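FORM 12-B: Structure-to-Sequence Request
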């Protein structure tokens, strides 16, 4: 095929694909708003309650794996001290409302959302505390997979970490270190996270939670 014709055809294909993506995102928004997700993860996945994960702008592929693992019961975690049930239980309980296609659409919708503003911590962390977190992140070798400042994961299967809630980050790191969370590609983290003590986990989480991805 002549190059100009090929370019025209592929240009048209792209043009034709855009409305389809927009439709998927709209349908995903409907799933998000009607299947109770918004109650726990907040508007557009930006402002979750308590120590739940923010989802806005998270990697689509990563989220889809997690959703499937949560639905099938592969992702387990520590119990919520308030309810006595695993944190993930509330999600497991509503998973009968969504099918595989809903999960695909909702992951697309969430990945397309702006990560939003960071949640300030009270008390505000000191510069020394933030620097200790940045130093631990680098020296432990987290950059290799989660990128600089947790805002550039090196593959689409790896999650963004910057701007997630501190308590959520602490819980996930601790659960992976203690091999409670073992689903998906968690294994890739075991070698690195086992070197982190509780103080380092807290420092890294404090620092990551205060990184604004929109400022990058
Ligand atoms: C009752 C509260 C609740 C509801 C409702 C809920 N979630 Fe969750 N979700 C959670 C909690 C808590 C976690 C983290 C579980 C853990 O700590 O292991 C989570 C984890 C996730 C994750 C993995 C995030 C990550 O960074 O690993 C995704 C994606 C997700 N939820 C999407 C959804 C979608 C989509 C819906 C609606 C179909 C939904 N959730 C409904 C509470 C909820
Ligand atoms: C070799 C690659 C690799 C390294 C190094 C690594 N991670 Fe991960 N990390 C992953 C993968 C892959 C996942 C997703 C696991 C899954 O599929 O469930 C993950 C998940 C996480 C999560 C959970 C995010 C969420 O939304 O639930 C946190 C927090 C995290 N990593 C922090 C760290 C920190 C801090 C370090 C350094 C101490 C680190 N990781 C080192 C690959 C890595």
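FORM 12-B RESPONSE
SEQUENCE OUT:
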């Amino acid at each position: 095929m002549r190059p100009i014709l090929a370019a025209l055809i592929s240009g048209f294909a792209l043009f034709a694909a855009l409305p389809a993506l927009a439709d998927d995102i709209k349908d995903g928004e409907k799933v998000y708003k009607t299947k109770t997700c918004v109650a726990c993860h907040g508007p557009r996945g930006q402002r979750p309650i308590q120590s739940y994960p923010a989802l806005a702008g998270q990697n689509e592929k990563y989220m889809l794996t997690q959703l499937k693992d949560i639905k099938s019961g592969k992702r387990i975690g520590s119990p919520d001290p308030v309810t006595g049930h695993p944190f993930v239980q509330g999600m497991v309980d509503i998973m009968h409302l969504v099918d595989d296609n809903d999960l695909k659409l909702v992951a697309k919708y969430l990945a397309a959302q702006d990560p939003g503003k960071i949640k300030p911590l009270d008390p505000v962390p000191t510069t020394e505390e933030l620097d200790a977190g940045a130093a631990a992140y680098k020296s432990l070798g987290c950059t290799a997979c989660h990128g600089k400042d947790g805002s550039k994961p090196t593959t689409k299967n790896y999650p963004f970490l910057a701007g997630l809630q501190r308590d959520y980050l602490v819980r996930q790191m601790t659960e992976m270190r203690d091999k409670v969370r073992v689903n998906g590609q968690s294994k890739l983290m075991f070698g690195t996270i086992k070197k982190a003590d509780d103080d380092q986990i807290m420092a890294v989480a404090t620092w990551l939670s205060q990184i604004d991805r929109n400022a990058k």
